[in-house]
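Table S2 (text version). Query chain:
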Amino acid sequence: MGPDTWSKLIVTVSSGSNGSAVKAAQVQLNRYGHGLAVDGAFGSGTASAAKKFQQSKGLSADGIVGPDTWRALVSGSGSGGGGGGGSTKLTHAQVSSMFSGAGITWTSTGNCSNRNVSTCTSFEQMRRTTAEGTVALKRASGCAILVTGGTETGHAGGTYSHWNGYKVDFSPQSCISNYITRTFTRIGDRGDGAAQYKSASGNIYARESSHWDVTFHN
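Corresponding structure-token output:
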């Protein structure tokens, strides 16, 4: 399906639009780091994401997904390349946008986001699956999520590490803690004594002394 075919399929959508064309636009926008609910309703979040995408592509940032915007959406491979797959690495700004849109907050002891400084909380080079998994947890649980650790240096090494974009640390607030312990399967303790819970998709939630250490494998 090339440009000629796409031009026949295009349905222009904008604020107030509803339906499958809006869902398609939301899916495409999510490939570029926007954590939109794919609900077919073109609300303020979708409009904001459309404008940001248009700005990034040098298009008129009017929030209307018409022929030029559709062409830009479907011709790219998503943020960071890799076809928009779960292994795609995102920028700090992209993850911040996804988290903000989902109502997820974050903090750092150093009030910074430089991944080379251990007192910062950075999302630079976070895997798309990790960011999307965090958003999915927020929506499924209905709980507030406060992220306290991302891809910054200072965590343990290994393949499935913070630095490699697989892990996120959450504050152990009662709502999210209760959701994890009630919903996921207890699989015993980690080598350091942290109680572990495993989701059906294979993600591991380890309850460390001051936070939840979560590994998103999928």
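Notes on Table S2: The first strand starts at residue 89 and ends at 90. Helices lie at 3-9, 20-30, 44-56, 67-75, 92-102, 128-141, 174-183.
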